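Hi support team,

I've been running sequence recovery on a batch of backbones for a student project. Most finish fine, but this one hangs at about 90% for roughly twenty minutes before it completes. I'm not sure whether the input is malformed or the queue is just slow. I've pasted the structure tokens below so you can try to reproduce it. Let me know if you need the job ID as well.

Thanks,
M.K.
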């Protein structure tokens, strides 16, 4: 098959479009012909490498997949050849205490497709059969690939972790990102009011289309000052963080007393300063978040395509993976960049 492979960590020049063997499946796995694979910031980190990554080379990136089942293992009962599917991007061992409790993302042996296993920048990919879900009616392959990782994560952050409630006010940072555009929609689904930030008025107009109630252009406005103005100095109930160092201090200050902050990443750096006075005087709650539960993705899928919508930025040929990586690195996108083999 054709695949985009890395032989060592580094810049986009390490992404090599070449031949690679088709994966061989076990009894509980399925082989999927990839129709579309969406990028995540994770892809850039895996490509660049670092202490957290211990990959077997050559490696194939790609965690967010839609496609057609072309082969199933002898023990597989939940899907069959010819089914149009999307894939949950992570899985646990299935038998430990955490997995049995449904907390697959707490499993000590948790795996992410394209990070801990060979990913989907390829014609074919294999996954455990329990990661295969039908594509919701009315969505094409490109749209379906734009769903899994960001909706799994944003759903876990807002529904399982901070338990968002009707009427609450939430600040969604960097609304143009995949998780940001998912968070706006989930917050609206639960009856919350959304203040969205983005770097341009063009991105903010798209955030408004997704349901954001109030908009802040952080390139020409201080987002903390704007949040205070827009909430009559109250602050917000929830901050949806994934930016990190450059926003962290102001994110904490944007919360009202008793407010909750949830974070799933730090694209601008993780060595952020936390002024503990704000945390204890205002009884702030800080939720860390890593991926999400497979059950949460399954729950979220019920709301597509009427109440939740995949947000597509651009679609490109798989061979142009380097161009796609650069688009993400420069934060030019609104929503998901999708590659098509
Ligand atoms: Zn487990």
């Amino acid at each position: 098959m054709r695949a985009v492979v890395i032989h060592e960590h580094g810049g986009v020049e390490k992404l090599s479009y070449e031949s690679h063997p088709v994966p061989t499946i076990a009894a509980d796995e399925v082989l999927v012909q990839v129709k579309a694979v969406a990028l995540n910031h994770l892809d850039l980190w895996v490509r660049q490498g670092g202490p957290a990554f211990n990959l077997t080379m050559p490696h194939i990136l790609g965690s967010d997949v839609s496609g057609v089942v072309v082969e199933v293992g002898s023990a597989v009962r939940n899907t069959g050849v010819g089914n149009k599917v999307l894939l949950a991007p992570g899985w646990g061992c299935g038998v430990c205490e955490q997995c049995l409790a449904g907390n697959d993302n707490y499993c000590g042996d948790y795996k992410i497709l394209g990070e801990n296993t060979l990913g989907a920048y390829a014609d074919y990919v294999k996954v455990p059969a329990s990661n295969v879900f039908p594509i919701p009616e009315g969505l094409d392959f490109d749209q379906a690939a734009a769903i899994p990782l960001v909706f799994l994560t944003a759903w876990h952050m807002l529904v399982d972790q901070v338990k968002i409630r009707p009427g609450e006010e939430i600040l969604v940072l960097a609304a143009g990102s995949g998780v940001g555009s998912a968070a706006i929609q989930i917050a609206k689904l639960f009856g919350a009011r959304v203040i969205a930030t983005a770097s341009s008025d063009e991105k903010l107009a798209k955030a408004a289309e997704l349901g954001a109630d109030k908009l802040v252009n952080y390139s020409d406005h201080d987002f903390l000052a704007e949040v205070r103005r827009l909430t009559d100095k109250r602050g917000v109930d929830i901050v949806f963080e994934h930016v990190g160092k450059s926003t962290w201090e102001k994110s904490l200050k944007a919360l009202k007393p008793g407010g909750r902050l949830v974070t799933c990443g730090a694209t601008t750096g993780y060595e952020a300063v936390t002024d503990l006075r704000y945390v204890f005087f205002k009884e702030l709650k800080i939720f860390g978040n890593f991926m999400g539960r497979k059950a949460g993705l399954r729950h979220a899928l019920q709301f597509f395509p009427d109440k939740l919508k995949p947000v597509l930025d651009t679609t490109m040929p798989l061979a142009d993976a380097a161009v796609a990586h650069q688009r993400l690195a420069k934060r030019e996108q609104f929503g998901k960049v999708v590659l098509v083999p």
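--
Follow-up from support: It reproduced on our side and the slowdown came from queue contention, not your input. The pocket of zinc ion is lined by residues 92-93, 96, 98-99, 107, 109 (CB under 6 Å). No action needed from you.
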